[in-house]
């Protein structure tokens, strides 16, 4: 798992990086949480770093890759959803949602993930839900503002 994380962030080959993302997904589901939880934020950061190097309009042509990114991000976040309260997990999820919003499968997958995160955090009490709302509402408001400015925004729709 550590070698996959290293290769995902340092290897020059796109094929290697994508393979590492796919491998991470398998590690996250196969390994015990005691092994994966300590690297949860590192995994989310590596996914964010990978996504920041991509032309997101090109990713729309590769639904398979977007689904793999979203599923790997989901598995990393769900190790401990409280990471969404302070980390970049939700921001990354919304970034992918904004670029994959025209794809029904991706939209439904992201909606389900967000519902799972919300349910898990709500179960932890009103404080966690309040922190989640404080984190999410500015992003959602910003999406609506952008949609109003451009008249068309797949995420807003």
Helix content: over 70%
The average pLDDT is 87
What is the tally of beta strands?
A: 0
Q: Could you tell me how far the N terminus lies from the C terminus, measured between alpha carbons in angstroms?
A: 38 Å
Helix and strand pattern: HHHHHHHHHH
Pfam family, one: HEAT_IPO9_c
Organism: Cryomyces antarcticus
Domain Importin-9 central HEAT repeats: 1-101
Protein name: Importin-9 central HEAT repeats domain-containing protein
Task: Describe the model.
The protein has 157 residues and is mainly alpha-helical. The protein has 10 helices and no strands. The N and C termini lie far apart (38 Å).
Secondary structure layout:
Blueprint: H1 2-10, H2 14-30, H3 33-36, H4 40-52, H5 56-59, H6 63-77, H7 83-86, H8 89-100, H9 104-123, H10 126-150
Helix pairs in contact: 1-2, 2-6, 4-6, 6-8, 6-9, 8-9, 9-10
